[in-house]
Amino acid sequence: MAECHPVGFQWVMEAKARGAKVIHVDPRFTRTSALADIHVPLRAGTDIAFLGGIINYVLTHEKYFREYVVAYTNAGTILTEDYRDTEDLDGVFSGLDTDERSYDFHTWQYEGMEIQAASGKRDQQYQDKAGGKNGKPSSRGLHKAGRGEAHGSGGVAITGTPRVDPTLQHPRCVFQVLKRHYTRYTPETVSDICGVPVDTFLQVCELLAENSGRERTSSFIYSVGWTQHTVGVQYIRTAAILQQLLGNIGRPGGGIMALRGHASIQGSTDIPTLFNLLPGYIPMPHAHSNEDLDAFIEAESPKKGYWAEMRAYTVSLFKSWWGPVATPDNDFCFDYLPRLTGNHSTYETVIAQLAGDCKGYFLLGENPAVGSANAKMQRLGMANLEWLVVRDFSLIESATWWKDGPEIESGELNPADIGTEVFFLPAAAHTEKDGSFTNTQRMLQWHHQAVEPGGDARSDLWFTFHLGRIIREKLAGSTDEMDRPILDLTWDYPTKGSIAEPEAEAVLAEINGWDAEGAPLSSYEQLNEDGSTACGCWIYCGVYTNGINQAARRKPAMLQDWVAKEWGWAWPANRRILYNRASADPDGKPWSERKALVWWDEAKAKWSGHDIPDFSAAKSPHYRPPTGATGADALSGVDPFVMQADGKSWLFVPAGLTDGPLPTHYEPQESPVPNLLYRQQRNPVRQITSLVHPNDRFQPSGGEPGTDVFPYVCSTYRIAEHHTAGGMTRFLPYLAELAPEFFCEVSPELAAERGLEHAGWATIITARAAIEARVMVTERMTPMTVQGKRLHHVGLPYHWGHSGLVTGDPANELMHLSLDPNVHIQEVKALACDIQPGRRPRGRARNALVERYQRRAGVTERTGTEV
Amino acid sequence: MAPVDIQIGRRPGVNTDPATQGGYQDHPPRMGFFTDTSVCIGCKACEVACKEWNAIPEDGLVFTGMSMDNSQGLGASTWRHVAFIEQRKPIAARDPGVQHDGDGDFRWLMASDVCKHCTHAACLDVCPTGSLFRTEFGTVVVQEDICNGCGYCIPACPYGVIDQRKGDGRAWKCTLCYDRLSVGQEPACAKNCPTNSIQFGPLDELRERADARLARLHEAGVTEARLYGRDPHDGVGGDGAFFLLLDEPEVYGLPPDPVVTTRDLPSMWKHVAAAAVTLIGGALAAFAAGRRIS
Under an 8 A CB cutoff, do B43 and A720 touch? Predict the structure, then answer.
């Protein structure tokens, strides 16, 4: 965190000054480790084993917060008889179809209740719920098609009440399943897998357990490296289980904080740049035949919890996009929306480019020629486009690969033969435009323009608005049905200044939404499904309450209480801590005075407190829903997790994940060691087969013949001096000089083993590529003992490319395309490599070196693709 | 021998307020930096903010291999410099309340260095043009439009801070953001330091704060914590920019016992004068004797 988020780290330092203990778990010793109370180096790719071990410790030593767990989690919920755990099936869950590489999740359900996910793969149950009784049992690859759909036999009841055993004793209740699942994650096993000494591991367990409960809370902070694994989502899930067991969710000082890679990445998922989401996490519809709005809402939303109001959110979104044209008669223009026909994630798109299906590409502030896994595939994909638009501050590698990229040097590509027309459009910086950042706390903070952008630089808002305006002008008068969605858009933002910059606040006002009279809304609870309200993103409703930009509030901390509700604005409804009903006990009293946040005020018969209660304000803790209740009314007074259909937080996930209801340790796609816990080596449903390509071969793993050709664990990361793929830093002298060359970090022991010289050169090789880096021999890299053998890491900051003031090979050349099946994120934080002293060969000899390694390791197109 | 203030020939401690000594009648309190290296996270925001504000040119794109330090040290074009020191020592010594893992025995010290703005500043003493001057805040500033590039100040600095810029010839160093101070703002580095490792304020206050921090660290068993440049009785009369260190100054590349290089000038001149008198006397005597002989 100190490394990639130094500004945010000030709060960790402040907490530390007030007595907080800081535990840092990371393969490398970073700036964070330097300031932490404990640094725990662990083998990259083994976090589920580490956290699973802590879960086992917490359960075995009864350190969990029992009242919290019983009342607020699904610990007592009883699962169907058909559920089989990894304990029963040697590392896989029931429902695995090895041919299709996917799970049928139906056996993971609660007994007596079909549950709908609040997020993730909500389309999983489309046929169950909307497809009637004709849907055949099927296990088509969810991730392959990019649509979690078509499972089961249809007609399954979607309402019902789960059976719950509050004593947590029933052998099929979640708690007992959880206990059995993690029994084998003993301290000794954890130590053997992770390379962490048992004493150190136990110290972490004790510190965490001691610091949780009624009086104290602990929080987890991860950077997005945690997501960059074939089991990335399950990493975070493991932390979530632990935090639920310890009672650290919905309470001050608790939670799991995701530190994103860029400012406002939270904002770009809220109002998404993702292919499968609409604003406010409304799913993008798939191309089901004859699907109308009713079927879409029926299939994608649960009957209970706040997502039951999805129709109001969706209709209001359409009203904001298409205004008066969206009416009940035309399904509010539901058919104007494009439909998903498959997985359109980044890496699938590259494959589509190579196949000639994807012909045009916009890169807005993204540098995949350096920053994406298997950077060469990215460049080859772009070389097969008709047009490419790059909007960035500088001429980044993704804009110039066609004339000076590595493939030009090697002769694999010739500029004269590349048909891609590349447009470079300079972009304005955040200081040159108005707008908001949404941080990891879901807090929007407005920034005001300080200076006009120089030269031709323009904001993304300017670009998007004027591009739309010009397209609409060109289409004007068209009678083609196909053009209606564009022509009917409410594309009328006011502009200002000599460059006709759209008013960013007008966009914010539209996102916030208004009623039929045009008055700004103040809460998403005002949204209607009859078309009388418009709202661009339901979770942001309220950010423009009373026509005032709430995100621009900057009341100093000393003028308000510690929750600081008047600094910026946090969605939803300016709540600073989500699910904060859980900060009070089932009767509505704070678990402790020290950790009081919101509570039930009996005299006023309403919820009150420091934060804005994340609960129906007048719903008593003693409220129990009548039979047949729907929406928020179906949740009882002790159901804090209001977005979930059962109102509970999920230790066990009955729906929404493609790769299992409980996190399980699998080795990374490429690992020098076998999986100690199960016969199943890797995540059986990792996304791999849809991306097979000759430039993306996998290595033997886990002791197969050839594994020892790539004996070291390799991980990429960022350092404080540069930002991601370097587009914002390598072109600036003040930052470039701070870290002027690509380097790799190795321990003195590894340096001795391979003859690497400090500040000299090394070549790092995988089955994809060979790159060179300056050598940093440092004791900050810790050799570890894993399964009785000495294990070394090669650390690779990934900021450099061939352009800019400082250059170097991109570490991402080495990476492969084996992805997390839920979110399609690449596994770049744990793989295997070799390292040799000296610089890499030039030209064609570079590829020849990689081919020699492939031959030595016996790499074929099938290597590493086993289930 | 105790240091002597060359400017007015007084011993330090008698009147160590440099602005008063510099002739300011009515001046603000002496301002300075307290850099608490025990909370430095090595982010280098100070280096970058300093360069941005003062428009300092890039200082070489050299990979040094010196841990994460590629700016190497203070110089004409680096006015804040973060040192990184990797040590085989328990991180227990890093901060109070630490229970290190036993396997570690490793720590990574980070420290942001800067011009010390000495109470007795030799650079200022030797500057023949008046380019270097004492400000009303007690800081030492070099004026780029007056400096003639003679370079006398460079060997005069006991810390090796002030430096001549290649291709320019003039001497450059931290101004403690004199322009910002003049309008009531804090220096750019302190403003940007996320963890308050760099603290800016009236020197008296900073010294109190530093003493309290030191006491806390000592109480917590961090016995090697020490203040550097805090003592008004040291060889430079105390620094306007002083530090809390977690090891010997040499570890951070700082001189252990800096002395204002102009300290011995008066006595040198006295000796020179005495020698001259002796020589002249001898010559006259010889002359007189010669005359007698002839």
Answer: yes
Partners of A795 on chain B (C-beta within 8 Å) are: none
Q: Which of B254, B2, B237 is nearest to B113 (CA)?
A: B254
Chain A residue numbers touching B63 (CB-CB < 8 A): 740-741, 743, 759, 774
In order of A231, A234, A605, A666, A819, the CA distances from A682 in angstroms are 9, 13, 53, 5, 12
The residue among A105 and B266 whose pLDDT is bigger is A105
Range list of H helices, A626-680: none
| Mean pLDDT of the B172-197 span | 97
With 0-12 CB in 10 A as exposed, 13-18 as middle and 19+ as buried, what is B274?
Answer: exposed
CA distance A783 to chain B (A): 11
pLDDT at B15: 55
pLDDT at B93 > cutoff 70: no
Q: Cα separation of A538 and A527, whole Å?
A: 8
Strand partners for B243: B35, B228
ω into residue B28 within 30 of 0, thus cis?
Answer: no
3-state secondary structure of A536: coil
Query: Which SS3 state, helix, strand or coil, does residue A771 take?
Result: strand
Rounded to a whole number of angstroms, the distance between the first and last alpha carbons of chain B is: 48
Mean pLDDT score of chain B: 89
B125 near A CB under 8 A: no
Taking 50 as the threshold, does the pLDDT of residue B8 lie above it? no
B195/A10 Cβ within 8 A: yes
Contact with chain A for residue B104, Cβ under 8 A: yes
Residue of B nearest to A201 (CA): B101
Supply B77's token pair: 């074009």
B110-133 residues labelled b (16+ CB within 10 A) or e (exposed): bbbbbbbbbbbbbbbbbbeeebbb
Residues 6+ apart with CB under 8 A from A94: A82, A83, A84, A85, A88, A107, A108
Residues of chain A with pLDDT under 50: 132-158
Is there a contact between B98 and A34 if contact means CB atoms under 8 Å apart?
Answer: no
Q: What is the pLDDT of residue B192?
A: 97
